[in-house]
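Quick one: sequence plus NAP SMILES, need structure tokens.
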Amino acid sequence: MKILITGNPEKDLCQPLVQQLEQRGHECMCLSRANGYDFADNPYGVIKRIVDLSTDADIFINLYANYFFNQTVLAHKVYKNWVSKGLNDRWLVNIGSTTDRVRKGKSNLYHYEKLALREFSNGHSIIGVWEEAPRVSHFSVGTMSNRTEQNPGRKTMPLDKAAGYIVWLLEQPKEFHVNELSIDPMQR
Ligand SMILES: NC(=O)c1ccc[n+]([C@@H]2O[C@H](COP(=O)([O-])OP(=O)(O)OC[C@H]3O[C@@H](n4cnc5c(N)ncnc54)[C@H](OP(=O)(O)O)[C@@H]3O)[C@@H](O)[C@H]2O)c1
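Reply:
Sure thing.
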């Protein structure tokens, strides 16, 4: 499968994810600042370039925690591109965060961005189960090991473990669709 990913294959979650996908024979194309895709610089221009590339991708893993709701905008544009071309065999995997489950008052935009992304995933995964349309899955995770320093004392999920769950999601029998997978590292 050709898998398009927003992330850098040398670091963060993208690194073990690409390693595990390539071990299974998938072809990964990663987009980040390292190869000229900087969302801070003309985000809508970058989104357009990624949408164009998505036409040839079997799977798009919307991984980078884009800002100002751009992760959801990107999901929408890729999905619409596939639908407009009748590419209903495609699969969009949105990477969210379990922070959006917390229902106390929150003022950080990241929380609402991830909540919007989860809603997008939920609505579109229903369509993909019932109609000829691209599949959409949502994977949300708690703090991972690349953010240990910023969260002293918190137990974190190893990056390769999180990557393994995404690979597992993609490897389920075609007759069954994983709408959502939400996993936290135990803190007690
Ligand atoms: N890490 C955690 O603890 C945690 C917890 C919960 C959920 N998540 C979610 O899991 C996903 C992956 O998280 P992650 O920690 O692996 O990394 P991330 O913060 O999403 O970053 C992934 C990659 O994006 C690239 N990037 C950074 N700024 C960019 C920009 N302006 N334009 C384009 N690319 C940019 C970086 O590579 P370059 O330097 O090459 O650009 C980076 O390696 C995210 O959606 C995040 O919200 C993470």
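Residues 7-8, 11-14, 32-34, 37-40, 63-65, 95, 97, 141, 143-144, 146-147 surround NAP (CB under 6 Å). Residues 109-130 form the longest helix (22 residues).
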